[in-house]
Amino acid sequence: MDFRRLELLIQVSAFGSFSKAATVLGIAQPALGRQIQKLEEECGLRLLYRHGRGISLTPEGLALIERASPLVRQLAAIPADLQSERDSPHGVVTIGLTPTVCNLIGIRLLGGLRKRHPNLHVNVVSGYSGYVHEWLIDGRLDMAILHDARRSSTVSVDPLADAGLFLVTPTVPTEFDVPKQSVFAGVAQIPLVLPTRNHGLRRTLEYAASKEGLTLDVQYEVDTLELLKEIVVAGLACTVLAKPAVLGELAAATLDARPLSRPRLHTRLVLATAVQRPITHGIRLVEREIKTLFTGLIEQHDEYGLMAP
């Protein structure tokens, strides 16, 4: 059934006259009559009585209008609703962040989105990169910021920044000698606390050690960033992290951090989305906010240790 013809029938019925409806609608009266006739042919029923005073609906015409009017109004409202959604998006966007990234941009991201898009509800889930990657593939997330994730048949990635890796050491006395230089060879000679191999950072370090012919002395495997840092603060081990992960401890002088050298190492932060999930307008807005934040952080390289990818 032709949607436009239903609209015309409703208008003719409302005006009670072909001539009045044609004048208001800006349609020639014969053309309007032909459209109503075609609608009657589609229905196989007379929908209007024509008489000297104008027109009246047949019982079938009245029944059609009663059923069709709400649908016509809903369809006519769709463009305005879509425009409203674009101007002030609604809905829920769920994003996965690693603990380092959550510390770095979490409150800024939520605050910026709240200010610019108050009707958009954003959920944040935090976990190490390997776990967040699994949640993204399982469909529990709309997007995620991951470490060193690669494009695949299930995940699309967009590089955000390269985060230099730092040797993080305690400021309290230790039972082991903390290397005076942060060359990578020295890292293999001290006890370390690192994430498990589910985390991209651990894989980066293991790969670098293998290339240098070194074996890392991993005393503790911890998949909780706060506990990992507490172990280092207590002087039980050292670790390797991106600088944003320890900004608070550096300010409080409970940890030291020096860039790794020979070789310099970094982890790439990427914005990842699941290929099978639809990309909504809200998701696009969150993506834009994230990229804007990282552009600003890269400009403050000395403070955050981030570089353009």
- Give me the secondary-structure category: alpha/beta
Give the biggest beta sheet: 8 strands, mixed
- Into which percent range does the helicity of residues fall? 40-55%
Proportion of strand residues: 15-25%
What is the overall silhouette?
rod-shaped
| Alpha-carbon Rg, integer | 32 Å
Span from first to last CA? 54 Å
Output the helix-strand order: HHHEEHEHEHEEHEHEHEHEEHHE
Number of DSSP helical runs: 12
Low-confidence stretches: none
Mean pLDDT: 86
Q: Your description of this structure?
A:
With 309 residues, this protein is of the alpha/beta class. It is 48% helix and 22% strand. The strands form three sheets. Strands 3, 4, 5, 6, 9, 10, 11 and 12 form an eight-stranded mixed beta sheet that branches. Strands 1-2 form a two-stranded antiparallel ribbon. Strands 7-8 form a two-stranded parallel sheet. A hairpin with a 2-residue loop joins strand 1 (48-51) and strand 2 (54-57). Helix 1 packs across helix 3 (29-43). The chain is rod-shaped, with a radius of gyration of 32 Å. It starts with a helix and ends with a strand. The mean pLDDT is 86.
Give the SSE map.
Layout: H1 3-15, H2 18-25, H3 29-43, E1 48-51, E2 54-57, H4 59-87, E3 92-97, H5 99-116, E4 121-126, H6 129-137, E5 143-147, E6 155-170, H7 184-187, E7 192-194, H8 200-212, E8 218-221, H9 225-233, E9 239-242, H10 247-252, E10 255-259, E11 266-274, H11 281-299, H12 301-304, E12 306-307
Parallel strand pairs: 3-4, 3-5, 7-8
Antiparallel strand pairs: 1-2, 5-11, 6-9, 6-10, 6-11, 6-12
Helix pairs in contact: 1-2, 1-3, 1-4, 5-11
